[in-house]
Amino acid sequence: MARILAGCAEAHANIALIKYWGNRDHRLNLPANGSISFNLDALLTRTLVVFDPKLTEDRLVINGQERRREEHRRMQRILAWVREKAGVYHYAHVISATNIPMAVGLASSAAAFAALALAATKALGLHLDERDLSRLARRGSGSAARSVPEGFVEWRVGTRDEDCYAFTLFPADYWELWDCIALVSTRPKPISSMEGHRLAETSPIQWARVADTPRRLEVCRNALRNRDFNALADIVEQDAHLLHAVMQTSTPPLFYWEPVTVEIMHTVRQWRKEKGWNVCYTLDAGPNVHVICTGDMVARVQEALEAIPGVQQVLVSRVGKGARVLPTHLCMDLAQQGRIPTHWL
Amino acid sequence: MARILAGCAEAHANIALIKYWGNRDHRLNLPANGSISFNLDALLTRTLVVFDPKLTEDRLVINGQERRREEHRRMQRILAWVREKAGVYHYAHVISATNIPMAVGLASSAAAFAALALAATKALGLHLDERDLSRLARRGSGSAARSVPEGFVEWRVGTRDEDCYAFTLFPADYWELWDCIALVSTRPKPISSMEGHRLAETSPIQWARVADTPRRLEVCRNALRNRDFNALADIVEQDAHLLHAVMQTSTPPLFYWEPVTVEIMHTVRQWRKEKGWNVCYTLDAGPNVHVICTGDMVARVQEALEAIPGVQQVLVSRVGKGARVLPTHLCMDLAQQGRIPTHWL
Fold it and tell me: Same structural domain for residues B187 and B255?
C-alpha cells in the first residue's frame, strides 16, 4: 500500500421533484420527509482526495481556490467518519472542481458531498455499497444522498441512520426529461440551505406538508412510471409551492422569489395550458426556476426562456448517472489545481 | 305604513389582518377559521332597497347599471331571509353605488352585503341588533359580517349560525392605521372569492392553517391592543403568506401574484427592516398589495408606492366606521340611478 492514499470521483447535482425540507435529526441529516429527484447530467463535480501523513491540517480547494477553515465544517463530517472506519488518521487534501454556480440554490453541495464521500472512501480502500455511500454522503448534505444512485432517485425517509438512504427508482434513460434552469440572479443566498432546514419547523404548516408527503411521493412515482407528463406537472408544481409556503411562513420568513421568478412561473403554466407543451416548473431554495420538459421540447423551451427579460442564462441538462469513481490518472488537472505532485496519483 | 317600503344604508369595505379562507358551511358561510380586519373608511358602498308590490321580479342596479339575473343569486339569500322575517313578500329594487373597483380583490362584496342587509331590514321595519345584522350580512358574503361593526373587528368562528358574527375589538380611533392599496392590475379575477373558498379544502395545508388560527388571532389582538407595529407586521405578513400558500397549493391552484406584487412585498419589507418605517403588507384574493402603515407614514408610503413601476394607482384609507342607516331623503341620487320616483322616499 502506497504511503499516499488517493481517490477520485465525480457526481452530479440533482433536482428534486418532491422536495426535502427540514430534518428530524440535524446531525445525521435524517429528513422530515422522503423526496424524489433526478440527477442533472450537465452539472458535475469532480473531487480528488489525498490523505497525506505530512499534512498538519485538512485542506479544501474548490475551483483552484483554497477555502478557509470555517468552510470545512461539513466536509469534516465525512472525513471523520471515513478515517474512523478505515483506522487511518492522516489529514487530507480535498481538491474539487465543479461547473455548478455555487450558493445560488443549484444544489452544488449535493454533487460535492456525493463526490467527496466516494473519493474519500476509495482513497482509504473502503468499499461501500451504494446504500452505505448514500448514507455517508447524506451526512455532508441531505440531498447529496440522492446524487449517489443513478437516474430517477427516491430518498427514503427511513426510521434511523441505517435505513435512510436513496435508491434508483428508474434508470436515467427510462424517460427523456430535461431540466432547463433559468438563472435569474447570481446573488449569494440570504441564508444557506443548511440554516433553512433548521427553520422549517418554525412554520405552522411544515407538519401538514410533511404529513401529506406519502401521497405526493406516490403520485410522483406513478407519474414517472407511466411517463405521464401532466400528472407529473401538477404534483411537481404543487410540491414546489408547498416548499416555498413553508419557507415564506417560517420565523424569520425566507422569501426567495424575485419578480422574474413569478413571471416565469406564469409563463410556463401558460405554455402547458395554452400551447400544450410538456413543461412545468419547480424551485429550490433560490429564485432560479427549474423548468422540466420532455426531450422534444428542450430547444424551444430554452429559447423561449432566454427571451424572458430578467433571465440571465439558461442551463440545460438531461437526466444523469450516479456518483462514480475515476481513475486517479484522469485527475491530474485536480492535482495541479491543489498543487499536489502529480506523481502521487 | 306606506305602500312603498324603502331603506337606505352605507357600509365600508374592510381589510383582513388575519384572513378568512374556506367555509365549514357554504350555504351559511360559516367560516373555517376566525378572522380580524379593519374597515376602510375611503371604500364605501351606499345601497337603497325599495320593496314594491308592483314589481314582478327583483332588480339590482350597481353604479347605474342594471345587472343580469345570474348576478342576483347572493342578493337573494339576504332578501329571502328578510322577507320571511318580516312576512312581506314584495319584490325589491336594489340600487347601489360604490367607489370600490369591483372584482379586483378589494372586497367590494363585503361592503355591498353589509349595506344591503342593513337597508333591506330597515326598509321592512326590522330592527336587528349589530350581532344579528352581522350574521345576516354573512349570508351574502362571509367577510361582509366584518363590515357591520365599527373599527377593528373580529369575526368569531363560532359553532353555528347563532354565534358566528363579528364584533368591534377596538374603535376606529384606537390606533391611527392606514391602508395604502397598490393597484397593480384591474383585470377581472380568474376565479371569484366565493369559488375560491370552496377550493380551500383541496389544499393539503389548509387544515394546518386553520388549526394555527387561534395563535395568530391572539398575537394580532395583542399587537393591536398594545399598538405594537412590529408585532403586527410579523403576524399580518405571515398570515397573508399562509392564505396564498393554501391558494397556490389547492387543486386547481390559484396563483394571484404578479411580478410587481413580489417587487412590492420585497420593497415594503426593506422599508421596515432598513429604514425603520412602520409598514407591512397583506394581500387578499388578487395581485394588489395592501400596505398597512401608521398615520405619520401615509404620505411618504403613498408616494414611494406610486414610484414603483407597474403600480397603477394607490388608494389610501384610514380605519372606518361600521354600517349605518341613511335617511332615505339623502339617497335621491340612488333613486334616480334606479329610475325610481324620488317622491317614494
Answer: yes
Partner residues linked to B9 by β-bridges: B47, B325
Tell me: do B27 and B112 sit in the same domain. yes
Which of B237, B262, B273 is best to mutate for the A interface (most A CBs within 10 A)?
B262
* ipTM greater than cut 0.90: yes
* pLDDT tens sequence across A145-204: 999 999 999 999 999 999 999 999 999 999 999 999 999 976 666 677 778 899 999 999
Which residue matches cell numbers 410579523? B234
Integer Cα distance of B343 and B345 in angstroms: 5
Cβ–Cβ contact B230 with A under 8 A: no
Task: Count the Cβ atoms, other than its own, within 10 Å of residue B195.
Answer: 12
Considering the domain architecture, whether residues A115 and A199 belong to the same structural domain is answered as no
Residues 178 through 217 of chain A touching chain B, CB cutoff 8 Å? 204-205, 207-209, 211-212, 215
pLDDT at position B1: 44
Is A1 contained in some domain? no
CB-nearest to B241 from A207, A238, A249 is A249
Domain of A212 in residue numbering reads as 177-318
CATH number, domain at B202?
A: 3.30.70.890
The span from the CA of A144 to the CA of A87, in Å, is: 24
Total domains in chain A come to: 2
Within a domain: residue B277? yes
Report d(CA A139, CA A132) in Å as an integer. 11
Per DSSP, the three-state class of A2 is coil
CATH number at residue A165: 3.30.230.10
pLDDT digits (tens, 9 = 90+) for B209-244: 999 999 999 999 999 999 999 999 999 999 999 999
Same domain? A189 vs A332: no
- 3 state DSSP class of A179: strand
Sheet containing B289-294: which strands, arranged edge to edge? B279-282, B289-294, B177-183, B313-318
Task: Identify whether A190 is preceded by a cis peptide bond (ω within 30 of 0).
Answer: no
Residues 6+ apart with CB under 8 A from A2: none
Assigned domain for B1 exists:
no
What are the grid coordinates assigned to B143, written together? Answer: 367577510
Beta carbons of B44 and B106 less than 8 angstroms apart: no
Asked, as a colleague might, if the bond just before B309 is cis with ω within 30 of 0, I would say no
Interface of B with A in 56-85 (CB under 8 A): none
| Sole residue written with cell 458535475 | A44
Which of A249, A265, A266, A311 is the best mutation test for B, with the most CBs of B within 10 A?
A249
**Residues B225 and B302 placed together within one structural domain of the fold:** yes
Nearest-angstrom CA–CA distance, A236 and A280: 8
Instruction: Determine contact, residues A10/A150, Cβ cutoff 8 Å.
Output: no
Clarify whether residues A95 and A20 are in a common domain.
yes
Predicted structure pTM score: 0.94
Distance from CA of B237 to the nearest CA of A (A): 8
Do B15 and B95 fall within a single domain? Answer: yes
